[in-house]
Write a structure and sequence with these properties.
Blueprint (H helix, E strand, L loop, with lengths): L6 H25 L3 H16 L1 H27 L4 H15 L8 H16 L4 E2 L2 E2 L6 E2 L2 E2 L4 H7 L4 H24 L4 H4 L4 H23 L2 H24 L6
Antiparallel strand pairs: 1-2, 3-4
Helix pairs in contact: 1-2, 2-10, 3-4, 3-10, 7-9, 7-10, 9-10
């Protein structure tokens, strides 16, 4: 079953298709042949701007968890032999302080539908029954519908294909490593007693690098979205960390 053929989703996809074509047309005088790629970047920036409140919530949650680190350490000491009690008390502490251990996942989860739409717009030859004109758009001579894995497997990859994807994947990997080093949690927070918070943090950390792997398999337009969003994430976190610094250890 093709989920994109489901009428409500197909309607959303068709509207997104028309909107992206219109945006590319508006950007044509400025971006030339890269207008569609510029449109994808602009859409990414607009989505991330709309998600700034979620980023602020994430920064506030990180600040609150750092403030609660001494209390969490005390809970670990007090209930070291009773993991279930430790988890209950930890979650109660979070609830009493109004802190969500999952706040860090919100920006990532909120982008999933947008990324799915961008993927579909450049993965199918037809959108809502009409030919997909977006597949004729290029960036540096590479079709925005090209995936590195697909092109390499099919023997159609060119030097430009490898070059463009290499740049995007390098950006994703470098930004992920800079983010990991810059925002490595202090010891008191890293040993967070909440399994839920720990899993959420591990998920976000792992996705920083798995994003680069995903970029190998998705259309170039989606890889461009991923590269743009990770750059935004780093810059936003730097700004918000200054606004909401962690409590001194």
């Amino acid at each position: 079953m093709d989920i994109y053929a489901f009428p409500p989703i197909a309607a959303i996809l068709d509207a997104a298709y028309s909107g992206l074509l219109l945006l590319a047309e508006l950007l044509q005088p400025l971006a030339g042949d890269a207008a569609a790629a510029a449109s994808v970047i602009l859409v990414t920036l607009l989505v991330r701007a709309a998600l700034i409140p979620a980023g602020v919530a994430q920064a506030k949650a990180e600040q609150s968890r750092s403030r609660l680190a001494p209390l969490l350490s005390e809970l670990r000491r007090r209930h070291a032999r009773d993991p279930e009690r430790l988890q209950r008390e930890t979650m109660k502490l979070y609830a009493d302080e109004g802190v969500s251990p999952l706040a860090g996942c919100l920006p990532m989860l909120a982008q999933a539908p947008v990324l799915a739409v961008v993927y579909a717009l450049f993965a199918f030859a037809a959108i809502a029954g009409h030919p997909n004109a977006l597949l004729a758009e290029h960036l540096a001579g590479v079709s925005l519908g090209t995936s590195l894995f697909g092109a390499a497997a099919g023997g159609t990859a060119t030097v430009a294909t490898f070059g463009v994807f290499a740049v995007l994947i390098a950006v994703i990997v470098v930004i992920a490593e800079v983010t990991r080093r810059t925002f490595r949690p202090p010891a008191g927070i890293e040993a967070d007693a909440s399994p839920l918070a720990g899993r959420a943090g591990a998920l976000v950390g792992a996705l920083q690098f798995t994003t680069a792997v995903v970029a190998l398999f998705v259309p170039l337009a989606a890889a461009l979205y991923l590269a743009t969003t990770v750059v935004w994430t780093l810059l936003q976190r730097v700004v918000l960390r200054r606004r909401y610094p962690l409590a001194a250890g």
